[in-house]
Amino acid sequence: MSNNKTFTMIKPDAVANGHIGAILDQIIKAGFKINAMKYIALTEQTAGKFYEVHKERPFYGELVGFMSSGPIVAAILEKDNAVEDFRKLIGATDPAKAEAGTIRQLFAESIGANAIHGSDSSENAKIEGDFFFSALEKF
Ligand code: DAT
Ligand code: MG
Q: Which cofactors, if any, are listed as required (predicted)?
């Protein structure tokens, strides 16, 4: 499978804290092109479906509540080696463990409210991008 796309969400904490512009700036300066983008609110149902793989984990209810607590920015991003390079750019899940200069280290509040999502594989990037965007909305 080609590895030139990944899927991201700027999460409700980062949107509420006014970080959309700064985060998009970092993403673009790191060489990613925007293939698709929208500003939307998830319901508990859509957030629950998106994070279904985590439904047995103890934080699932908290995660679904948080992700449906306010608007998000969803986007498909394009770059060579997109998935791996984007995971490096965002940093570790827990911002306390994220490397200096990463998006989570700079903008996240906690392990739950951690500012940004990045797909963990090209296969999941395709599934996640298709969950949010129709063919008409992708470039
Ligand atoms: P990532 O988003 O880095 O891929 P993940 O897939 O393991 O991390 O988990 C998905 C999201 O769930 C994560 O971004 C924030 C939340 N989460 C993960 N571990 C958590 C924990 N121990 N407590 C609360 N929320 C957690
Ligand atoms: Mg993950």
A: Mg(2+)
CATH 3.30.70.141 applies to domain 5-137: yes
What torsion do the CA atoms of 116, 117, 120, 122 make, to the nearest 10 degrees? -110
- Asked whether residue 87 is marked as a ligand-binding residue, the answer is yes
What is the value of pTM for the model shown?
0.98
| Residues annotated catalytic, as ranges | 117
Ordered by start, the domain boundaries in the chain are 5-137
Q: Ligand 1, from 59, 102, 107: best to mutate by most atoms within 8 Å of Cβ?
A: 59
Question: Which residue, among 83, 74, 118, has the nearest Cα to 2 in the 3D structure?
Answer: 83
